[in-house]
Amino acid sequence: MQQTVPTHKKGFSLSRFMIYVSLWIGALISLFPFYWMFVIGTNTADKVNETPPALLPGSEMVRNFMKVMEQVDFFSALANTFITASVTTIGVLFLCSLAGFAFAKLNFPGKNIWFGLLLVTMMVPTQLGLIPSYMIITELGWLNDLKALIVPGLVNAFGVFWMRQYISDAIPDDVFDSAKIDGCSHFRIYWNIVVPTILPAFSTLGIITFMFMWNDFLWPVTVLTDNSIQTLQVAIRSLNDVRFTDYGMVLSGTFWATVPLVIVFLLFNKWFISGLTQGSIK
User: Origin, by domain of life (predicted)?
Assistant: First the structure.
């Protein structure tokens, strides 16, 4: 008896069509502020208050960016931001993955208590630690030094929590026990087994950390009071004048400060999405 294989015809589906339309509308709404930033950054300041507003790019991008460089040392601030974000991201990936590995696979006294206290720190607003952190940085003599931005950010509670959860699910206990029987040290297990397995988690945490450090404003403006050493966000903030703000100049600087973030995300977005969806699909 011959068995027939059912065929599925792709026809019009109203529900699927509405989902696609909703996604497109959501994407356009999300992207419009970035497009508007680019449009204003390529026009003169008076275009902001025009009716109807300008919706097409102008020809003032170069001139506006030259104004930015006249007001602030843009490339020096870019270098400071890149160094701070890169070094902090590398430190977070290494130290948080080590701590996450310890909480996930090692047994030590007070393990659950320490992990619970770590989770509690995630509930404390960052602003509450601003004054104590500033006092510590002052005592160390790190004011107007990039160390004041890098060192406090080398470990964070979310990074440890993220790595602990990922390692717990990604690496079976049998693999860990087999490596211990073969004589592997804990660090060798971490380096040879854990690290290659958690690359998607590295990508996700790395992008989140890099973006946070790149966009951070409150802490840099607190500890970097010297105009000769600024991050991009502090430098762009100084473009605002009390009496008059040239929005074409400000948004031109903002646009070029955003470009590196877009490049980083495009380079690592595949791993980023993979890390976020890991475990949702068997």
Answer: Bacteria
User: Per the domain annotation, does 12 fall within a domain?
Assistant: no
In this structure, is residue 197 part of a structural domain? yes
User: Helix 74-105 crosses helix 111-121 at what angle (to 10 degrees)?
Assistant: 150
Q: Could you give the number of structural domains in the chain?
A: 1
Report how far residue 47's alpha carbon sits from residue 49's, in angstroms, rounded to the nearest whole number. Answer: 6
The domain of 188 spans: 73-238
Q: How many residues does the chain have?
A: 282
Tokens 């026809």, residue located: 11
pLDDT for 280 equals: 41
Q: How many CB atoms lie within 10 A of CB 235?
A: 24
* pLDDT for the residue numbered 11: 56
* Structural domain includes residue 263: no
Q: Which amino acid is at 189?
A: I
Cβ neighbourhood burial of 86 (10 Å; 0-12, 13-18, 19+): middle
For position 281, what pLDDT does the model report? 39
Q: Taking the model in full, what pTM does it have? A: 0.83
Contact 144, 229 (CB under 8 A): yes
pLDDT tens digits for 87-117?
Answer: 999 999 999 999 999 999 988 898 999 999 9
Q: Supply angle C-alpha 248, 253, 256, rounded to 5.
A: 125
For residue 198, the domain's CATH number is 1.10.3720.10
Helix (H) and strand (E) counts in the chain: 14, 0
Reference 246, options 254, 228, 218; nearest CA is: 254
Taken in order 262, 268, 270, 276, the sign of the CA dihedral is negative
Whether 130 is covered by a domain: the verdict is: yes
Burial letters for 69-85: b for 16+ Cβ neighbours within 10 Å, e otherwise? eebbebeebbebbbebb
Torsion on CA atoms 260, 262, 264, 269, rounded to nearest 10: 180
